[in-house]
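PROTEIN DESIGN WORKSHEET
SECTION A - STRUCTURE
LENGTH: 152
TOKENS:
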């Protein structure tokens, strides 16, 4: 007779999680990201079909794999670039380019308040929808056109 597997039980009390919730913080910031692929825009101006294979395998994927070793809090605190602002951050949909807002409408994602931007390198960004610890990849933007910054 084989032993029955018992479901894993969640710890009854996680003081760190409760403290984050009491402070009004996102309880997922202490967790590592996971990737959602179902919402990827394959065909738009920033669609994933436009990404060359070499760029995906040698540039984008390694950065995303590196991000998996970081918590959301670490990702959001990373800074650098010309303005020394945060590299990875939410962006309000109202600040997106007109073309990006139109594409969100075509994708029936125009009810969103914000997208999340992950910096790959230089101007290169991956935009997506953050839902808790899950980052749903949406667009690859090699030229920072989705969320244009004045003075660039």
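SECTION B - SEQUENCE
RESIDUE ASSIGNMENT:
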């Amino acid at each position: 007779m084989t032993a029955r597997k018992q479901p894993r039980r969640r710890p009854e009390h996680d003081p760190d999680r409760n403290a984050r919730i009491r402070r009004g913080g996102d309880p997922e910031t202490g967790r590592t990201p996971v990737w959602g692929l179902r919402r990827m825009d394959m065909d738009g101006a920033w669609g994933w079909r436009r990404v060359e294979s070499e760029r995906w395998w040698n540039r984008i994927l390694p950065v995303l794999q590196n991000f998996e070793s970081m918590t959301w809090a670490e990702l959001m605190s990373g800074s650098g670039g010309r303005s020394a602002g945060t590299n990875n951050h939410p962006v309000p949909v109202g600040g997106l380019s007109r073309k990006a807002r139109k594409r969100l409408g075509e994708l029936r994602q125009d009810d969103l308040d914000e997208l999340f931007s992950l910096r790959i390198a230089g101007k290169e960004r991956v935009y997506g929808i953050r839902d808790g610890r899950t980052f749903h990849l949406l667009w690859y933007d090699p030229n920072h056109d989705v969320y244009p910054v004045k003075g660039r």
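SECTION C - NOTES
Confidence is low (pLDDT under 50) at residues 9-24.
The chain has four helices and seven strands.
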